[in-house]
Input
Amino acid sequence: MLALRSRTVMPSLGRIFESRLLYLTMFIGVIITIFSIKSPYFIVPANFLYMFKYTGIIGILGLGETLIILAGGGGIDLSVGSMLSLSGVLLYFLSTMVNVWLAVVLTVPLGLFLGAINGVLCTFVGIPPFLATLATMFAYSGISLGITRGVALSGFPKQFGVLGEGLIFGVPVQFLVLLFVFIPAGIMLRLTSFGKHIIAVGNSEHTALLVGISPKRVRFVLYVISGGLAALGGILMDSWLLTARPDAGLGYELRAIAVAILGGTHIHGGSGTLTGTLLATIAITMIQMGLQLVNVNAVWQLGIIGLLLVFVAVLNQVIGGGGLRKLIIRWG
Amino acid sequence: MKKISKAFGGVIALRDVDFRLFEGEVVGLVGDNGAGKSTLIKILSGVYIPDKGDIYIGGERVEFRSPLDAWKYGIATVYQELALADKMNVVENIFLGHELVKNVLGLRILDKRRMRQRAGELLKQLLIELKSLDVPVSKLSGGQRQGIAICRALNLEARVICMDEPTASMAVGESERILDFVRRLREQGKAVIFISHNLEHVFRVVDRLVVLRHGRVVGEGYVEDLDKDTVVKLITGVLENLNLLGEEVREGTTGDLLDRNGSKKVRR
Output
């Protein structure tokens, strides 16, 4: 790690990206090896597919989070978990009035609207995103608890479960939905002007303004997208459990941020890849599954993911901040 | 630009500044720090909106609300701070905000091949040699970064190019190249505004000089009629006011930018 970053050989950013993806792939390999030794069940195909099902919701939320963090300016969306819960609950109420599939279609714009509220607060009103989305995190979660009186609502028709539980050629539908949003998002980020503008805004707001890009407009759009993705997460969650739980998204905001950062998105924006986020989602899901299989208590599972994040944060300082030497100087 | 004024809070940056520019002319804008040079340029390029005053181009009154508006009228600016996105590569920076796109199945997809090709041409024009177009611009030298910023302005096929301290962060060889380049722009009939603290550079490249002090134009004249001492005196305020342009010129132009006949009228 450090050898790569000796002062004479400055790796280009492209190489940092590539190396980040390489490390993640190696990391996933290590996880598979360790857990395969520990548990004979880890590597069996059934378990593997089961695991990919778990990547769906985290990955979808992580995608929105990645885009928001990429655009810089302290951008972060703490409300994705709450938006997921609220969308899920609203989907339930809609499904009691209209056909469940129509309800699904109607839930997405509701999510976009929730995201748009975040967007307005963070960009046009100018509240720091951390504060604004913390507020809406409580607000959205409060509303979903309020309108359900805190009770989980079940009674979705059985065929609705296909999104959360279904398999197509052995591949979980959840994972296919994940790819269904990642691929267009990847094309958007790499191959369109808007994608370049996201990165530019994350690099320097001032530069963006001078070349005629509106940072507010770009960021607003990303909060809206994040809301839509959270709604999609809520739909998957309802379908999976066939129940709308008012606290279904609890803790998902942290996982979404974790996969974005672990995947190599710079916390101040301006650099990062969606492939990184996707690989990080797979890695985190594998760790959770593996720890489950070797009977590590759920509380410890979260703790271990937390430790991993600390490690990655330090690593990011080392990679992005010019080596360990600088890190020590900064702290010393 | 006629009677331009701009204040930031209580600080008056520009007071009733008249400024004109003709095709195929290089105008030097000099003055001490805080004299209002960069502010004037940012008004001309649509970054700031003036409190008072009007901008005319070829007789038409125009209003710039954003840098995009200025671009549409062919005004491109190389800012002192260069306005580069450090973590993005050379091609991405040159085309930032003006990406070339192609139509693929109804989607507007970036035309990376064309952008690369065009970037290569632009860099070649400037005689800038880079090992790779894929490096992030933070890894380039001051002169190379300046070159990228100029390429961006060139790419816009601008009629007016404003350069704010283009030679400030450059090695000797690099700044020579920039000066050559400014001369070539003039030959192509473009108008250039050249801001610099380096009077040596200014005198070598400009046709006409405008001196700003405390937000006012305190001196104006053709390079042949001026010497460095006089300009320094104007900049520092030892000499209070000097106008070496003939009266008929002052009366004859109405603060127009890019008056085609103007340039012939003024040049003797």
The first strand of chain A starts at residue 153 and ends at 154. The radius of gyration of chain A is 20 Å. The domain at 38-320 of chain A is CATH 1.10.3470 (ABC transporter involved in vitamin B12 uptake, BtuC).
